[in-house]
Design a protein that fits this description.
465 residues, mainly alpha, Serine Threonine Protein Phosphatase 5, Tetratricopeptide repeat, 4 domains
Length: 465
């Protein structure tokens, strides 16, 4: 990891991929046996695939994997980087394959990466960097859907969110590997947002990033997601406005989608519309296309215009992720909820809780919500929870949302069960918490099912520890 390699890695982490390629070519001419060249070339392909989502690039790059693995296998077996680098490449390709629904090969690569990291851990127990990949895998194993558990059992894979996060924290705080700080912060934040939802920890990571989001594009994304999860939409808008503006960096178009969402949470329709249109005009990937058109349909509805964006939701994009699946379901039904409930949701998601409560209270007569009682009570409970109302009252509202449901595909009832479980967990009423985590898991066929079930399963593991 000489100066050339350190600088190339720094360029890669800021998506200055062409600059990184030049340094790697330079290193290859001077020191062709350096194994970090191969690893860093794979990082470039990995980030290009994950962020750009272009199938043609994925197809053209996949053949490089075996070539790189052969090169790495010819290196010094006594180095702690020997097995580590092979495991990293398997792990990066596993994530890349998930983008294009190649689940069986991805599962094989995850298992291969895990075994190599484990072997390396035994050989070099003081090599902290090994815990970057191992920690990520350990945390993600807790989120594997039930019907894939037989694979984990067969392969002897075990993990847990707490274990994974603690391993990544070790890497983050090891001064010998400070160069990896931004990458580890990115991974920790990703896991925190998707699996753990601890506001204090999210704030800790956001503080650690500091003003780094102005200099590093991945940290800009990370800080934007963390601040959003903390209900700090004004800060999210500031972060996204201050993103690094290097013209030579690989474009991260998803940030325009996030920017559009943040304006939408303000009910700033024109700026939101502009950001979604920029995203749709520039992005050649597969995800969030339907979702962006879905949000444009919302804006048109709230502005009482008649642009039919639902047609685009149906014809454009993909349905690999929950947001796009929900967009397509709504478009096929030509469905948008009550305008007040929609504005309430947006204000809540932006952290504008008082405004959301005021919006929801604008309709005094409950009969105006016939057919959408479950959403009404769910929204009211979520807002009151953020405004520190009495837990008993909040649980009653969530329970009313659950009671309204009869074979609905909406997420309000399972999310209400999840929220009640979290309240009981905070009260140290673990038996009651378990009942509601299980109730959440007993429901199926609803929007965002994978993510909601993930959090319920993580909760059950957490209270059983």
């Amino acid at each position: 990891m000489n100066e050339n390699m350190q600088q190339s890695y720094s360029y890669i982490m800021n998506l200055e991929l062409d600059s990184a390629k030049k340094l790697l070519a330079n290193e290859k001419s001077q020191n062709s046996t350096n194994g970090f060249i191969v690893l860093h070339q794979n990082y470039i392909d990995f980030l290009t695939i994950i962020i750009g989502e272009e199938k043609s690039y994925f197809d053209n790059s996949i053949q490089q994997k075996e070539v790189r693995m052969e090169l790495l296998e010819s290196k010094n077996e006594d180095s702690p980087y020997y097995l580590y680098s092979q495991a990293e490449i398997h792990l990066q390709w596993a994530f890349s394959r998930l983008k294009f629904d190649q689940y069986s090969t991805a599962a094989y690569e995850f298992i291969k990466a895990y075994k190599l990291f484990e072997e390396n851990q035994e050989k070099f127990p003081d090599f902290t960097l090994n815990k970057k990949g191992l920690g990520l895998i350990h945390a993600l194993l807790s989120a594997v859907p039930e019907h894939f558990h037989w694979i984990l059992n067969l392969a002897g894979l075990e993990g847990g969110v707490a274990l994974g996060l603690s391993e990544l924290d070790e890497v983050l705080n090891d001064k010998n590997f400070k160069i990896y700080e931004n990458e580890v912060l990115f991974l920790l934040s990703f896991l925190q947002i998707n699996l753990n939802e601890n506001d204090a920890t999210s704030q800790q990571y956001l503080d650690r990033i500091g003003d780094g989001y102005k200099e590093n594009i991945l940290l800009n994304f990370t800080a934007a997601r963390l601040s959003h999860n903390l209900g700090e939409n004004e800060l999210t808008l500031k972060i996204l406005a201050d993103k690094p503006s290097s013209l030579s960096a690989f474009p991260f178009h998803y940030l325009n989608y996030l920017h559009g969402m943040s304006y939408l949470y303000q009910l700033n329709y024109e700026n939101a519309k502009h950001q979604f249109e920029v995203f749709l005009g520039d992005f050649n990937g597969i995800n969030y296309i339907k979702s962006a058109y879905h949000k444009l349909a919302w804006i048109s509805f709230l502005q009482e215009e008649d642009d039919n964006y639902f047609e685009k939701v149906i014809t454009e994009g993909n349905t690999s992720i929950d947001e796009d699946k929900v967009a397509l379901k709504d478009a096929n039904k030509n469905y948008i909820t009550h305008s007040i409930l929609l504005k309430t949701r947006l204000l809540y998601d932006g952290g504008y809780y008082e405004k959301a409560l005021l919006e929801l209270s604008a309709v005094k007569i409950i009969k105006d919500y016939i057919g959408i009682y479950d959403e009404y009570w769910y929204r009211l409970a979520r807002i009151k929870s953020k405004l520190d109302y009495d837990d008993k009252e909040i649980i009653e509202h969530f329970q009313l949302s659950i009671d309204q449901v009869k074979n609905s595909s909406n997420y309000y009832a399972p999310m209400s069960a999840l929220q009640i479980a979290l309240i009981y967990e905070k009260q140290n009423e673990m038996d009651k918490a378990a009942i509601y985590f299980e109730k959440c898991l007993s429901m199926s066929g609803f929007d965002y099912e994978r993510g909601i079930h993930q959090k319920a399963k993580t909760g059950l593991v957490r209270i059983s520890d």
